Amino acid sequence: MKRLMAVGAVAAVGMGILTSPVAVSAAPQANSPTTTTSSVVWGACPAGYPATIQCSTVSVPLDYAHPYGKKINIVISRAKATGTAAQRQGVLFVNRGGPGGTGVAYAQSVQNRLPTSLKQAYDIIGFDPRGVGLSHPIYCVDPATFYQAPVPDPIPTSRRDIAINTGRSAQYAAGCLSKNGSDVQFYNTPNTARDMDVIRAALGEQKINYLGYSYGTYLGSVYATLFPTHARRFILDSNVDPTGVWYDDNLGQNVAFDKSFHEFLRWIASNDAVFHLGTTEAKVSKAWYGMRAALKKNPAGGVVGAAEFDNAGSGDMYSDSTWPALAQAVSDYVNKHDDAGILAQYGPTDLAGENGNTIYTVVSCNDQVWPHNLQKWYGDAAKQYQKYPFLVYGNLWFNMPCAFWPYGARQATRVGSTNVPNILLFNATGDPATPYDGALNMHKALRGSKLVTVTGQFNHGQYLYQSKNTCTLGYGNDYLLTGKLPKTDVTCVGDPHPTPTAAAAKSQAKAAPGLSNDLPGRAF
């Protein structure tokens, strides 16, 4: 699931031209570990990226079945280890999710969050995956026209509504195919994992360490499956269910997001002295859906209608740190007829945002064949909507381009089919984007892994992102520093929801939170 409207500031520079680093070429076999004597030459990153990181490019095959055919360039970054040669433990690849999330600037973001001992130990390696940002970006539609707000309400009330939204999904798929031709079939998770191994070889490393969030857990598990001898220490946080790629995983999201939304409503009710939307969940829900109906009839600023309001709500379910601003925006609209707060939640999808949407769609559609029977899509959505209405139809139309997709693997990569190294997993029990049951399935697939369960927590992203939680930080830091896994699966208690004040909520509501490149997993 991805918010369609907002993009991060750093992502907007994704069309910059990288000129100083030298490209490194490698052409591995399709399914074998990579070896090469090439070396990376580091240089400055484009304007707009942190000056503290270095960048380079690595050339990879578009199609690994034809390694000496067409090449594309992958842009990588390095936040260099701060320690001595004796303290250094190698490279730590990082991925914040997606598919479609940018990663070049993310190397610095992760290093900033690490304790000194880990800053000293690892070169943090970020990268824009194939098709993303600086790495041969691809697009499906013109964002200025396709996302012109307000877009149609995703929740249908007639057959015409269904036809309109189905048509938009078909139009998006057609745009992907017409703009990119048959090359589009080679943008998938296994090829991105193979790209990572080319990068590993170009860096001269025998093994990599890895920290991946959300979709990044699937990418990391696929890499460890394809290249088990090149995987050292892997942390997978907020885990994709590898058995549900990707149709079933989205059905699971619909349930989990709805549960998070109800938690949000209860939280607002418990803070009625601040938001004045009602002292019960039912009263707050009535205010929320009353506002949605009003926005559908008269979009705020002419742009924030029902769909845009839904996107703001679903985007803010990823982290309760954004709840105060959203709740205040709703309060201002309902109680004061002030739409400034909800307008601040909106940002039009630009070219960088469309690039993220494109890769989400293309990779998702290519990883495994989706159902082509539209009646199955409609039937599953209608059934879920009766109990879990919050996300169902927005998620349906966003993923339905895959119903019109001519490519796709017959079977997704079977994670854990080879002997993978011991891996540390984190997952919150209330995570909306990667439900907890998926983490249990990932844990089962990756034999020898250990799972850190975070209870009472509804946020997406645990290790490094719940900064006050010494329990999750302790397990993650110790593992990356020493390789020591817990003897058994363990539990950490999640951080409590924020306690808002009227002044703080009001201040936050005035500024658009958008999609931060510092947060994990905002795409899947």
Automatic annotation (TrEMBL):
<dbReference type="InterPro" id="IPR013595">
    <property type="entry name" value="Pept_S33_TAP-like_C"/>
</dbReference>
<feature type="region of interest" description="Disordered">
    <location>
        <begin position="500"/>
        <end position="524"/>
    </location>
</feature>
<dbReference type="InterPro" id="IPR051601">
    <property type="entry name" value="Serine_prot/Carboxylest_S33"/>
</dbReference>
<protein>
    <submittedName>
        <fullName>Alpha/beta hydrolase</fullName>
    </submittedName>
</protein>
<dbReference type="GO" id="GO:0016787">
    <property type="term" value="F:hydrolase activity"/>
</dbReference>
<feature type="signal peptide">
    <location>
        <begin position="1"/>
        <end position="26"/>
    </location>
</feature>
<keyword id="KW-0732">Signal</keyword>
<dbReference type="InterPro" id="IPR029058">
    <property type="entry name" value="AB_hydrolase_fold"/>
</dbReference>
<keyword id="KW-0378">Hydrolase</keyword>
<feature type="domain" description="Peptidase S33 tripeptidyl aminopeptidase-like C-terminal">
    <location>
        <begin position="393"/>
        <end position="492"/>
    </location>
</feature>
<dbReference type="Pfam" id="PF08386">
    <property type="entry name" value="Abhydrolase_4"/>
</dbReference>
<comment type="similarity">
    <text>Belongs to the peptidase S33 family.</text>
</comment>
<feature type="compositionally biased region" description="Low complexity">
    <location>
        <begin position="502"/>
        <end position="512"/>
    </location>
</feature>
